[in-house]
Amino acid sequence: MTTYRLAVLALCSSCAFFVASTGHADTPATAPLATPVSTLVDNSTFLPSSRAQAAEPFVGSVRIAQSQMQAEPALKSALIDGRDAGLFPALTLDLFSDGEALVPVQRGTMVRERIAASAAAAGRSAVSYWRVIPQFGRVWREPGDGGWSRAALPLILVNDTENHAHQGVAMFRYRGKRLSTLQFQFTQQTAPYLLHQHNIFWGGSALELAATMLKDIDTERRAARRELAERIPAKPWIELERQFSPGTLDGFGGPLLPRWQVINALVYRGTLYYQNSNTPRGPYPYPLEMRFGVRSVMKSIAAPLAMLRLGEVYGPYVFDLRIGDYVAGLDPKFSRIRFIDAANMATGFGGTGSFRTNPNNPFDGYLDADYDAWYTAGPTKEKLALISRNLKPYPWDPGTVMRYRDQDYFLLGLALDAFLKSVRGPTADLWEMLASEVFKPIGIHHAPAVRTRETAERDGMVWANAGYYPSLDDLAKIALLLQNGGAHEGHQILHRALTRELLTAKAALDPAGDASRGTIQNPDALPLEVAPKELYRSGYWFPRHVDRSGKNRYLPSMQGSGENRVTFYPNGIITLQMGKAAELPTGEKALAEDIDATHRVIERMLPFESTPQN
After folding, report:
1. Residue 247, SS3?
2. At 158, which helix (H) or strand (E)?
3. DSSP assignment of 419-430, as one string?
4. Which of 314, 449, 459, 474 has the largest CB neighbor count within 10 A?
5. Nearest partner of 224 among 102, 54, 63, 112, judged by Cα
6. How far apart are alpha carbons 405 and 403 in whole angstroms?
7. What is the mean pLDDT of each run of 10 residues along the chain (614 residues)?
8. Taking Cα atoms as reference points, which of 219, 385, 424, 420 lies closest to residue 311?
9. Who contacts 13 (Cβ-Cβ below 8 Å, separation ≥6)?
10. Alpha carbon distances (Å) from 365 to 356, 368, 390, 501
11. pLDDT digit string (tens) for 294-326?
């Protein structure tokens, strides 16, 4: 075996990017050049069997034709904003093999449909609702395929307006320059919104091998290997169970009911342990390649990390800058609204719903004022016009009362981007700053996220309220950076003191209260009888948990619609729970009554008083 082959195998073993959680398919398809599939298959079909052999090397640009997907259940309404959610998009992907790995050059990016080619190929002007994020896959050869090789890769269906994702797999067969059709199926997903239903999609698309545009395969190969090598060590859940007595981990993932769980994982002593992602066609075969539509988890990432980074570079005064000084045309009240007020959802703006504040309902009026028109609007200018038209000032001061508004975070993102441009020049971009100065140093190489749609072919400003499509590895790295006080490998990336204040909920708001007399400075010291059930600060929820010693604990938690949660524990453990509990069928419930189930699992693993060891 060559040194190169050994290196590739060692890389695959350490990163486990192709880890499967079930058995493999031993019966290959009978026709390498089959027509598009009409039935779903077990997900293990997209992995090598126990008899698999080394594949023929592959390199090329693969053109995928637009095709009609089959859906179960059938789509109630396929057209959304003039685009068809039943169509798999026409795409071009640059692919090459590296040993057993299949490497998409566009991995981790939201690949657009080739609109003109799509319309011409279909003989109509239909445009798909979807973009696609490709991820690392596999190449191999099955004994019964007559010398043909197989190439399989995860594909994630995503959209540039709503932040939900369909996790799927695709496969084609190749021999020399000949390709089969592409077989695909999407059997798992995070929570829908505009689609209004949970679906399984599957089908096939014609493929064409185009002349490769890859000029430097060696550079691309080195980049892919470096990316995989920088992933957090990851192991399947069974490896964690072996470290504890039977029953210790029972209940992990609660209170979310299993049928609405996408995948659960945790970081323990520097290793990411992950459960199966169960689907109607068996466990998802590439769990570490999954990307998720995490919705409002983005509120815990884009603006807070940007503020902490800018606080480190320019000073904490950034938190006290005024929104109105950086976003033109807003209501005069924004001249008094600080960046930190918007981060705390306490702008005192957005006057819909009741004005009663004792007790306050933070979600009162959240989806009023023609929310969907604002949410689906494409250009920044149109979004700002809808805010000005439909939302008005509340009678209370900024920083005192929390009312949950996506618009607050959208405006905060615009203001942060404008501040960045004011100090670095007109080409500076908030999300690109985070990608280069925060994500890349901690090993996150791709950060696909929704941006405003300025034209059909041009994206604008990143949403700060939703829209991120992270992997488990991405979320774990962000959480570890925060847990380590904003430092990574001795380099201070985020402002240390401000990061500590965030995770300890210093100056947090009681969402049900009124902070006109001051914020809460030391939440864990509050007497149990007066302690709020949860707090909010800078995009983070802090649910209260009373530990087994009777001590009050406020646990920092990123949270997004569908029951997506990333939670930090005092013993250094980080939990990651991806869910799809939105748009539930009538009569369905998402949560069990035991809301502290996962908290107790973590406490059984390691007492909360223990020193963090991540």
Report:
1. coil
2. strand 149-158
3. HHHHHH-TT--H
4. 474
5. 102
6. 6
7. 36 42 43 60 96 96 96 93 95 96 98 69 74 98 95 97 95 96 97 93 95 84 97 98 97 97 98 98 98 98 98 98 98 98 97 87 94 95 97 96 97 98 98 98 98 90 97 98 97 98 96 89 87 96 94 96 97 97 92 96 91 60
8. 420
9. none
10. 12, 5, 12, 30
11. 999 999 999 999 999 999 999 999 999 999 999
Q: What is each CA distance from 254 to 266, 296, 362, 488, in whole angstroms?
A: 13, 20, 24, 31
Q: What would the DSSP string read from start to end of 547-571?
A: -TTS-EEE--EEEETBTEEEEE-TT
Q: How many helices (H) and strands (E) in the chain?
A: 13, 29
Cβ–Cβ < 8 Å for 275, 263: yes
Rama region for 425: left / alpha / beta (φ>0; ψ in -120 to 50; rest):
left
Q: Measured between alpha carbons, how far is 533 from 304 in angstroms, rounded to an integer?
A: 23
Q: What is the SS3 assignment for 273?
A: strand
A 10 A CB-CB count for 544 gives 18
pLDDT recorded at residue 612: 66
Tokens of 292: 């998720």
Please give the full DSSP string across 378-407, using - where no structure is assigned.
-SHHHHHHHHHHH--B-SSPTTT-----HH
Question: Which pTM does this prediction carry?
Answer: 0.94
> Which two tokens mark 590?
């998402």
Only one residue has tokens 């073993």, namely 13
CA separation for the pair 404, 541 (Å, rounded): 12
Dihedral of the CA atoms 472, 478, 484, 490 (nearest 10)? 110
Take residue 453 and report the two structure tokens written for it. Answer: 């749609």
Residue with tokens 């399947």: 236
If you search the block for the tokens 């077990």, which residue do you land on?
42
Q: Give the tokens for residue 150.
A: 């197989």
Q: Is 557:427 a contact under the CB 8 Å cutoff?
A: no
β 557-560/552-554 pair status: unpaired
